[in-house]
Amino acid sequence: MELAKTLRINQSALSKLERRSDMYFSMLRAFVQAIGGRLEVRAVFPDAGAIDIAGLDGSGILSDVRDLLWRRCQIQPMPPDHEFNDFLLKAVDENNATFEKLSNNQELYVPIRRIAEVLPETPSSLPIIQLKGSLQWSANKRLWQFAP
């Protein structure tokens, strides 16, 4: 029960996860970290031995996002009908980034695995969080949502 809570899923979802033969690296990484480990991925070749594969541990993007904590940034792509693109990064963990849209104080939760890259600040623009997917405004819920 505690592991399901740490992973932010219910007990039945955890049971299904434990029996899966295929899953995202991000979910496997979260599972391993929740039980106290660290995920490392290596390719093993008969003639060359083992080669560590960098980047699949999520540390590059995660580190870049963490560097923006409590800073203003922009998120792309934004829906064309919502031009105001000014967010504050409020929290980051291994799985999610929590942003606040500064025009209306609404929160947005983006899975780290859905962040393609972090573009640095330039003299003419804020840092940019480039998504794999897009944002949608839900008028009914009055909430920003991530759309894969």
Overview of the molecule:
With 148 residues, the protein is an alpha+beta fold. It is built from 4 helices and 10 strands, in the order H-H-H-E-E-H-E-E-E-E-E-E-E-E. The protein has 2 domains: 2-52, no CATH class; 59-147, no CATH class. The model has no long low-confidence stretch (mean pLDDT 82). The longest helix has 10 residues, at 25-34. The chain starts with a helix and ends with a strand. The chain is 22% helix and 34% strand. It has a 6-stranded mixed β-sheet, with helices on one face. The protein has a two-stranded antiparallel ribbon with strand order 1-2.
What gap, in angstroms, lies between the N and C termini?
Answer: 29 Å
Helix-and-strand structural type: alpha+beta
- Count of discrete domains: 2
Uncertain residue ranges: none
Overall geometry comes to: globular
> Measured on Cα atoms, how large is the radius of gyration?
18 Å
Strand content: 25-35%
How would you write the strand order of the largest sheet?
Answer: 6-5-4-3-8-7
Question: How would you summarize this macromolecular structure in one to three sentences?
Answer:
The protein folds into two domains: 51 residues, no CATH class; 89 residues, no CATH class. The protein is 22% helix and 34% strand. It is globular, with a radius of gyration of 18 Å.
Summarize the topology.
Elements: H1 2-7, H2 11-19, H3 25-34, E1 42-45, E2 49-52, H4 59-66, E3 72-76, E4 87-92, E5 96-101, E6 106-111, E7 115-119, E8 128-131, E9 134-138, E10 143-147
Parallel strand pairs: 3-8
Antiparallel strand pairs: 1-2, 3-4, 4-5, 5-6, 7-8, 9-10
